[in-house]
Structure formats: structure tokens, C-alpha cells
Amino acid sequence: MTRVFSGIKPTGHLTLGNYLGAMRQWAAVDQHQADAVFCIVDLHGMTVDHDPARLRRLTRQGATLLLAAGLDPELCTVFVQSHVDEHARLSYVLECVATDGEMRRMFQYKEKAARERVRGGSVRLSLLTYPVLMAADILAYGADEVPVGDDQAQHVELARDLAVRFNQRYGHTFVVPKATLPRVAARVMNLQEPTSKMGKSDDSGPGIVYLLDEPDVVRKKVMRAVTDSGREVVYDREGRPGVTNLLEILAACTGGNPESLADVHQSYGALKKDTAEAVVEVLRPVQARHKELCADPGYVEEVLRHGAEKARAMARPTVDTAYRAIGLLPPVAEPALNAAR
Ligand code: TRP
Q1: Can you state the angle between helices 241-254 and 268-294, rounded to 10 degrees?
Q2: Active site residue 200
Q3: Which of 83, 131, 157, 236 is spaced 20 to 30 A from 215 at the CA atom?
Q4: Is the model's pLDDT at 335 over the cut of 80?
Q5: What confidence tens digit (pLDDT) does each residue in 79-97 have?
Q6: Are 27 and 151 members of one domain?
Q7: Residue identifier of the C-alpha nearest atom 11 of ligand 1
Q8: Domain at 212, CATH number
């Protein structure tokens, strides 16, 4: 069976973009059709300035929301990255395979490092090595497919390169993964800035619908979305990014087609109203389930404990093989030591 691996960083509250662009597909499709592994990648949440208490809170909330979105621990594996040591173990090995030049070419590094420098801050070394850790996440599980947004395609490409290079130098160890862009998913843009993605880490509140926003907050944000000059509702990514984003969100929520939805809406106001209600309806069951799960923290803990155990059992043999292949001396097991004496 195809092994699928994906991760979400707990660097902000999860958004409608995370849900429509990824989580919903994982629940509806991937967990049924593949051997799917989903991870809250908390180690990745420390590459820029972070608050320990917030990281802990967002990690728990992220895991709870994955379950609320319909990931079923009977069908797939859900866990927290830092609960499984294999990620960090393999990451170091891959740092001995990747090159400095390769890291500095990563678009996301260049962008984020530049942003940090403008703020006068220092750039953490982990921001540079982050794609190696991500490669370790993927390769430790022998993932065939990695469903990610297009902003992560370059990182998955690096994971492929490292797998191929390691296999050539040290013998076949890793499955060579490929990125899969979600089949049906919407690419949800920021409501205030419809040419950039609705990212959770941006923290420019009014343009971002969070999964846990109250219905009235959702309505307000959608009704205040930036639209374009002109009056008629037309689907046009380039010319009408604001209206097009609303059409895509509405289509994703109702299973409709954005072009035909443009035809049946006479005004921006009508489109906004329908979109707001559609989003509220899509979020309703997720929020209800989240509330139930929060009332039963022991259940979530148990799911994560069991998930980490399953994940460890999957990753351990591959990472051990990589250790041996690259030349690290295997430790002698305890009983053998005793026997030798
Ligand atoms: N880098 C990804 C992001 O920012 C998150 C991530 C970390 C990931 N490790 C992964 C995604 C492994 C897929 C597979 O969205």
C-alpha cells in the first residue's frame, strides 16, 4: 500500500486554508486509500522566535483539530514529532549528506532569513537546516507520497535528492518520495490580501479565518473581505483575485464549481453572504467535535501516545539501517556483553 506522510507546523492557529487545502483531503481520501501518517511537527516550530508555552498549546490544539477534522486513529497514524526520536536522529545523518549550498538555495529560507534580518533579529541555524529535518520526517517513514502545498515542493524535491544520494553512496536505504499536490483542494488566499496564501503564521487576523473562529467572527471576516473594482461577479484569478478567492472558498465548501457560482451571483454582497454561511456550515461539525475532544483530554493523550508508538515502530528500522550504512558502529546489546564476561 502507498505510504503517505504529511505534517503541520504548530506555529499558529490552524486556518480554513489548512482545512480546505489539506486536512479535509487527508480525512476524506488519504486515510482510506493509503497507509497514512500525519504529524504535528513541533520541532519545526522553533526555527524562529517562539514562546515555549504557546508552542505546547498549539501542538496539543493542532493534534486535537486533526482528530476533529475526521482523522481516525483506527485508519491512520496521528502523532507529535518530538515524541519520536527518530526524526532528530535521522536529521543529523542527512546533514552529513546535504550541502551548505543546497540549503542556502531554498526559497523559503532566503525569504524568512531576509525578513528576520530586516527586523534586526538573528537567524537561527535551525531555519537553515529545517529542510533537512523535513527530509528526515519523510524518509524515516519510507513515504511514497507527500501531500503538500506548492510552497513545499522544493523541500520535498530536496528530500528526493538526499534519498537518491544516500542510496547511491551507502547502499539502498530510503524510498524516494514524491510531492503530490492535493487533488481537489482549494488554494485559499488571505481575505485582506488575496494574492498571498492564507497562512497561519502571518497573524494578520482580519484576512484569516481560523478553524475555531466563532460563526459571527467568520461572518464579519468574510463580509469585510477585499473585493475588486468592478461590479459583476467574474471568475478571474489575475484580474479579480478577491472575488475569485471568495468563489473558490464557496465552491470548496459547497462542492460547486467556481465558474458556475460566478454566474448565479449578481453582486459582491450576495456572494459574500453565501460564502460566509457556507464557511460557517463547513466549520460547524469540526468545532463541535473539537469541543467534545477538549472535554476528554485523556482520550487525545492516549491517541497521541499510541500514535507515537506506531510511528516509532515504522521509523526505527529505517533509521537504524541508515546508521549502519553510513558507518556508525552498532552498540553491543546488553545480553551479549554479559555472555562475553
Ligand atoms: N514544512 C512544512 C510546512 O511548512 C511542514 C512539514 C514539516 C512537512 N515536515 C513535513 C510537510 C514533512 C510534509 C512532510 O508546511
Answers
A1: 50
A2: yes
A3: 236
A4: no
A5: 999 999 999 999 999 999 9
A6: yes
A7: 7
A8: 1.10.240.10
